[in-house]
Amino acid sequence: MQRWAGADRYETAALVSSNTYPLGATTAYLASGADYPDALAGAPVAARDGAPLLLTQRDCVPASTLTELIRLGATKIVVLGGTSAVSEAAANLTAC
Questions:
Q1: What is the pLDDT of residues 33-48, one digit of tens each?
Q2: Distance between CA atoms of 2 and 24, rounded to whole angstroms?
């Protein structure tokens, strides 16, 4: 058994992604790290698509999430939740 833990939930999600998708992924899912329902509902869909689910803040993307998206080489980002959960700025990958 391995334990993957980062300094916060955003870094932990990025670590899970990097360990689960070491060769990258063309699609990634992005959900609010502040409220869990969108991530909870989206996780099975992301898994079905062979894509990681990463977490973001409402108005900007944390460095750990952005770094992982770049490492993955993701060309398609699926944003879960409305703009009250993930703003247009975060959906457009504006860094924090």
A1: 999 999 999 999 999 9
A2: 20
